[in-house]
């Protein structure tokens, strides 16, 4: 018997007490009601992202270039996804046209957009669609500058899950990487970008 | 460079050794206390936490009661998404699958994300035996691995090491396995983390094959999720060409929308954060992004035995948050190593004996007794596992398994099982044992390690204490101590009056 058949067979034997007529939906699940997103969620998002020791800069579309330049200060080699909107792309940025991992390790920062932001948890979600780059691009460089539009902010995890497409790879980012493994002393920045700057526009 | 739990003495003996280790106790007390407070704060922020817990429990019950359907569905959606699905009846089979994949790519190393399932099956040892190095990349796991040590806590496995020990381990060991630690390394946590970053980066950039577990696997979409803090998970899940994920068959959730509930329950219960720094989700292969060869090993290894136990089945709801460890007075005072398993604490006390079977191993059979049944674990558990209920149930099974044996040990087991089966009886028995302890403490002798132990006891317990030394009953009963000190929280280190 194949391992597959044997494991499935064991599962069925183990579940002999479950009535044959029972359907999964017969096991009732009562979930908390989702909360609608309100205008206050943009403030909450900014606050909660900052709680994780990420830098949050709120600005208007007009001010964005100035704040962007400041966020990218001290990043001599900047990587951008090849499909990052022209308006956001600094002239000397390196386009990520499938750089090798070793090449990725030589850039100092990366600039992307995001799929959405979650107010309640201060989370940025990348679905690695246009402007967001492939997963490695926002991982290997030491600084991640991320542009999030205010209208991309949703209230909570429930709203985020409802809006995201699981067929895409997803990266949920809540502050810079961190560890508390040594005497529970929180240290920001282990393997991912040690600096996370969120530009919240609008 | 690995150690195992094989040969760990039965819980009472191992616990006595740990109790003598003040550094371990102090670190554990600090860790569990800190995480407890953080958890309470962020759980308090969620209005409908209780409803969320009930939803989590119900969703897992739905999955477990129809696991055959969901496993078949997961296999189908993973395959559709470009992943290769393997099935493993036991540890040896799972290890063989991973070793064969690594060998097939001609590599002599893999990078690993912290995963309890791969620890449970001893994958690192199997890989080493096949000449393949398995690099643990979680900071704590790295400390444990370089220190040739065993993890002591699900969440903070190196909590038994202090910063100067970590510095020594890094200075001594890193150079043997790759990039050495800088010679002027100090013991500040930030510098130690930076040394780990530099040491591991060359391995991430070079590795062809990564091995992970998964916190969740969505049957409907074939999505796996890994929840982490440091970014080593993202490195492993993204950079290598080949990714192998070993997933216990209890990790399933039915639909993508169901993941929502668990993504709220887990981080708040686990690290006491609204959300952990990084969560990665992927469904099979994404062209031009991440590993282009993706394997998923669906692991049984005793889980179907747990599933077959109608009372014990609920243990498979566990999402490994470790909240039950942090509130457990027995865990806090005895340490993770006493449980002799990768699953320590209250969940370990029920899961380990069920995974491996009761009645054939004294160490396993002693685990269901490693509890005072105070119920704190049930109260914090995000999926409402009634650990005390399962403990009592397992004690009965242990006693049943030994029925008819000529060993007097049975009697003690039986007595304990009877006493522990009812909270009021437990309290009464503990009061009595406290009183007896007062008398007996006058007659105690010193064991070789200097511990206070009792010689032979009279009555039915005599044969039991012939075989092994029995710890002196505490002056104060466990429950009385717990009530007086709020579970040890208000007790000063130097006036330690709890169970010995
Ligand atoms: S038993 Fe419950 S509290 Fe303990 S680790 Fe599992 S999910 Fe968390």
Strand order of the largest sheet of chain B: 1-10-7-4-2-3
CATH first level of chain A? Alpha Beta
CATH architecture of chain A: 3-Layer(aba) Sandwich
**H/E series of chain A:** HHEHEEHEEEEEHEEEE
Total count of helical runs of at least 4 residues of chain A: 5
Given the helix and strand composition of chain A, which structural class is it?
Answer: alpha/beta
Written account of the structure:
The complex is a heterodimer of chains A (about 200) and B (about 500). Chain A is an alpha/beta fold and about 200 residues long. Chain A contains five helices and twelve strands. Chain A has one domain: 3-Layer(aba) Sandwich (Rossmann fold), CATH 3.40.50. By secondary structure, chain B is α/β, with parallel strands linked by helices. Among the domains of chain B are: about 260 residues, Rossmann fold, CATH 3.40.50; about 70 residues, no CATH class. Chain B is built from 23 helices and 13 strands. In chain B, strands 1-10-7-4-2-3 form a six-stranded parallel β-sheet, with helices on both faces. Chain B has a four-stranded mixed β-sheet with strand order 8-5-6-9. In chain B, a hairpin with a 5-residue loop joins strand 11 and strand 12. In chain B, helix 3 crosses helix 12, helix 9 runs parallel beside helix 10 and helix 16 packs parallel to helix 19. The longest helix of chain B has 23 residues. Chain B is globular, with a radius of gyration of 23 Å. The two termini of chain B are about 35 Å apart. The C terminus of chain B is likely disordered. Classes of the chains: A alpha/beta (about 200), B alpha/beta (about 500). At the A-B interface, helix 1, helix 5, strand 9 and strand 10 of A face helix 2, helix 3, helix 4, strand 1 and helix 8 of B. Iron/sulfur cluster binds next to helix 14 of chain B.
